[in-house]
Amino acid sequence: MRWGRVIGLGIVFGVVLTAGALAYESVWIRYLPPPPERIALSRASYADVGCAVARPAGWTVQDTKRRVTFISADIVKDRSTRGFRVSATDIPYARADDQIAALPDRLGSYEALDTSHREVDGERALVHTFVGDDLRFEQWWIDRGKRTLRVDLWSRPADDDAPALNERIIRSIELL
């Protein structure tokens, strides 16, 4: 009879605990990040790189000669989990395919998802998307005649909104 009472109290306790958890979940306000189309972008020009670009407000900017990097405040294990880099390179656009073909040797475990031809600010562009366990990358090569603009965007693979935000950033690029 004593074991029956213990089991009965255990069941009642489990029901009360479950009801409390459900009540808590029903009133708990969850923070959801804004959708990519509502993220405020801040625009600036970078003459050494040869373009103007918009970045999400609040991201850190590291501007060096011929390269500018934008990093989200979201850091995991001393590593940025979201950001992008725009650099001016002397590699001709015609050699972009060669550079993309060499990526597997340099990146190891990353898997290629897609390579496609697009257009940015009226210029032809080549975009290559690849993913690993920890990061998803998009690499854009934008034809500038004698020089090529390269844009590297990275995010966590689980960031479902990253492709939409990346598209907004790419569409914000204006060649100078």
**On the 0-100 scale, what is the average pLDDT?**
82
What's the CATH topology name of the largest domain?
A: Protein Transport Mog1p, Chain A
Q: Which assembly state applies to the chains in this document?
A: single chain
Please give the domain count. 2
CATH class of the largest domain: Alpha Beta
Distance between the termini: 85 Å
Give the proportion of residues in helices.
25-40%
Q: How many H/I helical runs? A: 4
CATH superfamily label of the largest domain: Mog1/PsbP, alpha/beta/alpha sandwich
Pattern of helices and strands: HEEEEEEEHHEEEEHE
Instruction: Return the CATH architecture of the largest domain.
Output: 3-Layer(aba) Sandwich
Low-confidence stretches: none
User: Which structural class do you get from the secondary structure elements?
Assistant: alpha+beta
Number of strands: 12
Molecular shape: elongated
Largest beta sheet: strand ordering:
3-4-7-11-10-9-8
Strand fraction equals 35-45%
Please give the largest β-sheet. 7 strands, antiparallel
